[in-house]
Hints:
By secondary structure, the protein is α/β, with parallel strands linked by helices. The protein has helices spanning 17-28, 41-55, 71-85, 103-129, 153-170, 206-216, 222-233; strands at 8-12, 33-38, 61-65, 90-93, 135-140, 180-187, 241-245, 248-251.
Amino acid sequence: MWELKNKVALITGGASGIGLAYAKELLRNDLKGVALIDINNENGNKAVNEILEEFKRKNCVIFIKTDITDEKQLENAFETTIKTFHQLDILINNAGIFHEVEVEKCIDVNLVAVIKGSMLAIEKYFPKYKSAPEGLIVNTASIAGLQPVERTPTYTATKYGVVGFTRAMGGDVRYQVGKTRMIAICPSLVYTPMCNATEDCVPEPFLSMIVDCVKNKPGQTPEELAKKVIPVISNAPTGSVWIVTTAGCNEVEFPS
Ligand code: NAD
């Protein structure tokens, strides 16, 4: 039985929304520590204070300001996490942006950094620093990684990429260097700052259509999502993909 207790997690996009909710839910499950990795300095410091206030446990959280699209910064985030907690067991590749204008940036944050972060964990850090025989990588994809979401072709492509990467790498024994399970989570609408898309990210008339869609679709809070996801991650098989809607968290079946 793989337990969350006393494990250490690095969470990208951990300063806000889903990443922050994962951090808190993991600490509720007796994780030893979480490293929040985010480009947003202000939210990162706020998140640390919120966690310290809520959990009253010294040294259970750090924030490392990081642009995950910069390889040096990404590697520094791993190094700082190890220096602080002396172990690393879980990588949650969660940072993401909703951008249909800056195509390369959207691909770099949502997909390239997921691949590079996973490689760093599997090849360099898990083999030396995980506290149990097995490490875990959780990739936040999206329902847009399972079915195209209207008017968001770039975002949709990146999330299909995350699902494909997880199935390919998580399901391939040749990649099980030092034993790592990799799974993907595909949430439907979650009420987070990402839902407040601006015209810089999605040009009109598509923006209005997306805003309407967000208003009219039932969504979940990041806390509700985290409560459904965290119990699943301990024993989910490697390469598995999970859809998380208001109805619950279920494994996705793909045609064989
Ligand atoms: P959010 O905007 O609250 O959180 C995303 C975080 O990623 C932010 O704190 C942001 O600063 C950080 N980030 C962005 N670019 C970064 C970079 N280059 N380096 C480091 N950090 C960076 O949004 P969220 O909804 O919590 O999104 C989390 C994940 O969930 C994303 O991958 C998103 O695609 C996915 N998702 C969201 C929804 C939804 O409806 N909100 C649905 C499905 C999937």
